Amino acid sequence: MNGPATRQAPSPSERTFTEGEISSRSPSRGRNRGKSLVHGFSVQVAYALIDAIFVCLIGVSVLWLRFGFSAIFGPEQQLLRVGSGHTYAGFFLLYAALVVMGCANQDLYRTPRERSVPKEITKVLKAVCIATALLFSFIFLSGYQDISRVVVLLASAANVLTLSGWRYLKRRYILYRARRGIGVSRVLIVGAGPTGEALAQWLRTNPQLGYSVCGFLDERRADERRIIGSPHELRELVLTQFVDEVFVTLPLDREIVKAMVLEARALRLGLKILPDLYDGLGWRAPLQILGGFPIMDLHWRPIPVVGLAVKRMVDILVSASLLVITAPLVALFAILMRIDSPGPLFYSADRVGLKGRKFRCYKLRTMVQGADRQKEQLRRANERSGPFFKMQNDPRITRVGRWLRRYSFDELPQLWNVLRGDMTLVGPRPHPIDDYEHYSVEHLRRLDVTPGLTGLWQVTARSDPSFDTNMALDLEYIERWSLSLDFNILLKTIPVLFRAAGQ
């Protein structure tokens, strides 16, 4: 565990499964670190707003069908002039509020992925019926005679279809992403007995749940290929297999389970158990049902869905804008590079990103052709401690390349990686494959997030040669991540670039 763990990239372990057994252990293509069974408050509010908007739009559409387009939007606006239009507007706003409350009552804003389509449609039907009944009651008690009951009934029928329809499309979209490995949580199952097998089978045949089984941990039958280790190897296997959650499915010694909970907290890892109280660890833990299996969360961590969505939106807007703005500058650099040395404009190489997934990273070429072949010969002159390689006076760097590196202009093409989603504006720097092969198991934690153009290390200790310092700052960033931290790092990056501290 303490020494370097040299492995064949990108797979940190030789113990794998065939596609027909469990599921491929290749790193997830997902952009996010798993998902939560319980949506955050912000997502629930977004779902409620969608419902309310649809109810209002349906109200306008039904009025148009009932009274004609000109009565609502025409120059004379007859419906609004007689006052009925304002009455209808008020009633449909009330109807939207009642529908939202009905959906909340039916638990439609907390949508577990194992909920079936018929069950969800039934819940929508109940919610709309409750809202419609309350609206009719209000119309009757208030004495309004201008409201057409036919309009309300047509709107209620359309609401059932529409609110069920958009939920069905959302479900299909989630299933499409899950089948492509996007947003999927990688899980280990502790226990290869009948319960563990049944759980793995259920997760495999229900991809909409968003789980990919990496394998089993079990001490009793370690000779089986599907069993990749014992519960005592949890930490190492969680890191090498890029695991998001662990399911405990067999009776274990209580001290082992307690140790697993502590390890899960240290690794910020989801741990679920089929359940036992284990000396009070399960008290007050939320109990869920997953495919008929009772699940108890002993430790869980909410996913900052809105924050990650905003971060991705900022990545897209900033990278797209800068790619356009800096295009003339890149063209100028191309001319200077061509005059200085022969070779292509861009340099591309594999880098290791989120969950160990390889991607093609792009830079402006700053070295002579064939520089990669000389790297191993120069490793003895490496000025950095630890796995990664860096020399201040690297003989492979061209004259123009050295100037580009000082101001980090050579990294401008990585804006394309940010736009594609392989990288982000702020995050740990991606390392080359040969450096990644020298990682220890603990170093793999920096691959829990998407690599970035700049990060905490770049703005606080860029000249520090210690890989341990680099790793500590990367892990500090992962632990402390927030949008405000990203913003502060971006602001601090600007003076760093003007100081020409790049190498």
Task: Please sum up the structure shown.
By secondary structure, the protein is of the alpha/beta class. The protein contains 18 helices and twelve strands. Helix 1 (41-67) crosses helix 6, helix 4 crosses helix 5 (117-142) and helix 5 (117-142) runs antiparallel to helix 6.
Structure report:
48% of the residues lie in helices and 11% in strands. By secondary structure, the protein is of the alpha/beta class. The protein folds into 3 domains: 41-178, no CATH class; 183-303, 3-Layer(aba) Sandwich (Rossmann fold); 306-498, no CATH class. Strands 3-2-1-4-5-7-6 form a 7-stranded mixed β-sheet, sandwiched between helices. It has a 3-stranded antiparallel β-sheet with strand order 9-8-11. α9 links the parallel β4 (245-248) and β5. α1 runs antiparallel to α4 (84-105). The two termini are 32 Å apart. Residues 1-39 and 69-83 have low confidence and may be disordered.
Shape by Cα distribution: flat
Strand order of the largest sheet: 3-2-1-4-5-7-6
SS-based structural class?
alpha/beta
From the N-terminal CA to the C-terminal CA, the straight-line distance is 32 Å
Could you report the average pLDDT, rounded to the nearest whole number?
A: 77
Number of strands: 12
How many domains, in number, for the residues?
Answer: 3
Succession of helices and strands:
HHHHHHEHEEHEHEEEHHEEHHHEEHEHHH
Helical stretch count?
Answer: 18
- Radius of gyration, in angstroms, nearest whole number: 28 Å
How much of the sequence is in beta strands? 5-15%
**Helicity range:** 40-55%
Spans of at least 5 consecutive residues with low confidence: 1-39, 69-83
Largest sheet: 7 strands, mixed
